[in-house]
Fold this sequence. Notes:
Elements: H1 4-14, E1 38-42, E2 45-48, E3 53-56, H2 71-81, H3 92-104, E4 110-114, H4 117-132, E5 136-140, H5 158-161, H6 172-176, E6 178-181, H7 186-195, E7 200-205, H8 221-232, E8 235-239, H9 251-255, E9 262-265, E10 276-280, H10 282-285, H11 304-319, H12 322-344, E11 350-354, E12 357-361, H13 370-374, H14 378-390, E13 393-394, E14 403-404, H15 411-426
Parallel strand pairs: 3-13, 5-6, 5-7, 7-8, 8-9
Antiparallel strand pairs: 1-2, 2-3, 4-10, 9-10, 11-12, 12-14
Helix pairs in contact: 2-11, 3-11, 7-8, 12-15
The chain binds pyridoxal-5'-phosphate (PLP).
Amino acid sequence: MNHSTSEQLFSRAARSIPGGVNSPVRAFRSVGGNPVFIKRAQGAYLYDADGNRYIDYISSWGPMVLGHAYEPVTQAIQKKVMESTSFGAPTELEIEVAELIKGMVPNVDLIRMVNSGTEACMSALRLARGYTRRNKFIKFEGCYHGHADSFLVKAGSGVATLNIQQVPGITGGVSADTLVAPYNDLQAVEELVATHPDEIAAIIIEPVAGNMGCILPLPGYLEGLRKICDREGILLILDEVMTGFRLARGGAQERLNIDADLVTYGKVIGGGLPVGAFGGRKEIMDKIAPVGNVYQAGTLSGNPIGMIAGYTVLQELNENPFIYTSLENKTVHLENGLRHILEKRSVPHRINRIGSMISLHFCDHDVVDFQTAAAADISLFNRFFHFMLERGIYLPPSAYESWFLSDALTNEDLDATIQGAEEFVAGL
Length: 428
Ligand SMILES: *Cc1c(COP(=O)(O)O)cnc(C)c1O
């Protein structure tokens, strides 16, 4: 495969953009080599600057659940854009989006729009602190909640990919309020709670972790956290930036039958535009300005272009819930195919999957937290990544990321992917 245009673009990019990219995981640092530059995408396919085609398994890291350049979305944006792109004043469309989401997620009474998942999590944490009048919070090793200061302690995603142990610029005071426990370990949470009585405002968690591979909560784990929160007056924040509207209409809350006090969204909610949101029970959300005094704001929050893109995707998911069955069937097909060829060749592996999130780990132990994910053969994954890329299959460029399927994928795409993996395995 010829990547000469991408190579030229990357060296040009590196002269004006830090590391040549506007978000670190795009840089291929952990898998080695240089990123391919994408020119356009349609359905399940990415096309790079050299004209190569790739079957896409990142879906822009989640948002493109219905595929790229999905016509109802592109048309809605085109129509809306003619009426201007932002007013700094309220619109009816924002109400329609909020009402639609409330219909899809029963325990959201009020929801506030922001511009990214980072903003959503940062704002939800501030709100939890304001509401409980406590400062500390618990997060989990390998979970990523965006790049706000408080969350960059033992974070997953790019922080794990780049093996950054401690992020310079985060003050000791901020880190001291961030308590960290291993994922899937209730006892560790009990111990933190016992050590810091009446000091913990919130527990924030990815209900399915997608930033250290795809890691499912063990049976009873989320329920255990819910109980601790109820007992201790701690707010449970479910970060559904990845899982929201992807695992089910009501996200992980519906799929795993768990109730959050506050929930954060991003990715799918914007249909490919920069949108995030946080919501929850009225008595908590009423603490947000202008009703309450927990300040939170955004010049472009709820802008009509982001709203119409998100609305179009959410409405489709709401009206056609069979999309979730279709997404799951496709992902199960991929899972079964990969497992079959890995078993046939006796390659140690674990495949974690729920709905349309899946990850492959080269190891022979269960992957249930960051440590077990990190103990897999990362260099083998990196070789696998490049092998697949050269065959036109675009996997996440890191062993610490979930793959995201879109409904635009066909069985032929999935079979081509399984066959690519089979060729890789055969060469081991
Ligand atoms: C992507 C992600 C975020 C951050 O969202 P951005 O839009 O990139 O700021 C937060 N939480 C989770 C679980 C994510 O996957």
